[in-house]
Automatic annotation (TrEMBL), chain A:
Belongs to the TPP enzyme family. The keyword Membrane does not apply. Pathway: Amino-acid biosynthesis; L-valine biosynthesis; L-valine from pyruvate: step 1/4; Amino-acid biosynthesis; L-isoleucine biosynthesis; L-isoleucine from 2-oxobutanoate: step 1/4. Residues 15-132 form the Thiamine pyrophosphate enzyme N-terminal TPP-binding domain. One of its GO terms (molecular function) is acetolactate synthase activity. It comes from Marivirga sericea. This is Acetolactate synthase. Residues 404-551 form the Thiamine pyrophosphate enzyme TPP-binding domain. It catalyses: 2 pyruvate + H(+) = (2S)-2-acetolactate + CO2. GO terms for biological process: isoleucine biosynthetic process; L-valine biosynthetic process. It is an enzyme of class 2 (transferase).
UniProtKB/TrEMBL annotation, chain B:
Belongs to the acetolactate synthase small subunit family. It holds the Pfam family ACT_AHAS_ss. This is Acetolactate synthase small subunit. It catalyses: 2 pyruvate + H(+) = (2S)-2-acetolactate + CO2. GO terms for biological process: isoleucine biosynthetic process; L-valine biosynthetic process. PROSITE patterns: ACT.
Amino acid sequence: METVATKSQKTKTTMSGAAALVNCLIREGVETLFGYPGGAIMPVYDALFDQKEKIRHIMTRHEQGATHAAQGFARISGKVGVCLATSGPGATNLITGLADAQLDSTPMVCITGQVPGKMIGSDAFQETDIVSISMAVTKWNIQVTKAEDIPAAVAKAFYIAKSGKPGPVLVDITKDAQFEKAEFEDYQTCDQIRSYVPNPKLSEKALDQAAELINSAKKPLILFGHGVLLSNAKKEFQDFVEKTGIPAAWTIMGLSALPTSHPLNVGMLGMHGNYAPNILTNECDVLIAVGMRFDDRVTGDVSRYAKQAKVIHLEIDPAEINKNVEANVPVLGNCKESLTALLEKANENQHGEWLARFNELNAQEDEKVIKDELNPQADEPMSMGEVIKHISNISRGNAIIVTDVGQHQMVAQRYYQYANWKSNVTSGGLGTMGFALPAAIGAKFAAPNRQVIAVIGDGGFQMTIQELGVIFETKVDVKILLLNNEYLGMVRQWQHMFFEKRYSSVDMVNPDFQMIAKGYGIESEKVTERDKLEDSIHRFLSHEGSFLLEVMVGKENNIFPMIPTGASVSEIRLE
Amino acid sequence: MKEQFTLSIYTENLIGILHRVTTIFTRRHINIESITASESEVKDIHRYTIVVSSEEDKIKKIVKQIEKQVDVFKAFYHKNDGIVYQEMALYKMPTKQLSQTKEVENIVRKHHARLLAVEPDFTIIEKTGFKEETQELFEQLKPHGILEFVRSGRISISKPMKEFQDYFTEVEQASRL
């Protein structure tokens, strides 16, 4: 590296594109990144070798693992998650993680190597058109073919990934651009793109209309989503809920934005959510959606969704307004700013009678579902719910819970008593099996002082099981709770309920998971008897370092309540 | 109800944006009837004109999805009565058809078409108008032997008087917030 001061007094440094890239990452505050090396990204790995003190590269065992680890890291740290991969198969392996981050608005920058510029289009070894392939699953992407263009592309990538509605961005850099030497000025971060409006200006009129509706509502209901967490509106949201006295229900992406035990937290929305908030969505007079996007898993049949209610939608992305549910009062803007403004305009209030309706319905759900799920009869097999209950009690609701996708995901989110802000990491929109293990690794790197528990089923575990290698190598302290029912439980439940119990390809022929853990140097226990469960969980959670706890749970337990596909939220079934 | 809509989309002049925009249609199984792209009245900003048939509710959502793209400034949609629009068609005919009879010449005159090039072997006729007009000319020339035919995508200008420059200034100011 060679630094010279030019006549204009601007310091210019000569270095390779790869070294410039690593400098850019350091200047963006990246200290940890996830990736996998290969031919077309080798100059970047070479440059990382020189900066080991400043930037730590975690080598996952598959590029998909790198994306989920970066997502877990981003979701907990609030920073941009960063991934590195080579061209061709390395790049295509990122697609699932990009799609997941796109649907769950997770800030992520993926950098891929590409074959040298002059070979592009020649079907060269490990060449794929990753810019075209990733277009549908990125917020923005770009190919860079000259070293001098790298800093501006990286600056733009980070700005786009984290601003407005966050999302994944891909920067594809040809190998010759990585090698090429160029003169670089001091790195400039990006803070504006002329065609891009990430933060819509708050409309005073909309805020007034919203406040008027909120203040005159008799039976209002708040639905909160990821936007509360993404905008860091912890205090603003809780203050708003408490001042207005309005019951608040969460989407799985909004979970942990308000403690589970909060008296106004009325539970989970949607397909396997709680009885009361689903039923009462179709009884409330004003629906206040905060940073959520009315996903079909939340709304059920949208033509019979909250038709009686006036809808207020606090949302940063104009494309989400009226996309699935018509908003009477759209409030465009960052949730934190909208909530701050609304907090002032909203009156102090209490909705005792209306809250009592929730309690009535809660009692029904408790009687028909929750009691049995959390305290099965002695002769019944262990339930996922009772395992989560003990995990929750013993960890005092303080852990970060990272879930995979399926029955265990619903159970963990329904029954873990989240005490702290930003403590739930899950694949919500895309429903990516295999998400939890690498995402938990990323979450732990983001919050080394917090307990991180990955809750995984026996199906999803085997989709990214190779990431146990990262735990083995880095000794990262991720606790793995494997809820094993020897089935693809959610698919089996649907086959049970809607396909006349014709169980097609859901029976899992599983390996010995303890033996696999042993191969990776990870201690483990397997629980098959209820009377051993609590002691095992104590050992699991107090163990120093990673630990696999496999619990054999009831094979054919179904998750209730449930809104069958095509049904309305108020048709939610308790059995 | 399905209707014809014309979308005008203003974008940065960068590689890949056209692909991002067109996949918004293909993902929703909407066929693009015609597409035209060129530089707009503002330097370095490109304008796409896209014609599709769909329902207005869908089109509204699509316009928002297009505007959501980082490098897109603004997207508008219009029904046919909200715009003035034209298409151009070129017809390649054997020159001997024109020299031997008066018929082709009469058709060309009647349609206010013009001769763009006359070569010993072939003649190129140009006609600007609505699709129905260029199609009618095509039907009439067809018996006389059309060697080649091409029609451009629609270009259109909206009737409302607000200029893109004003929108451009608004977006640029909002991007600084």
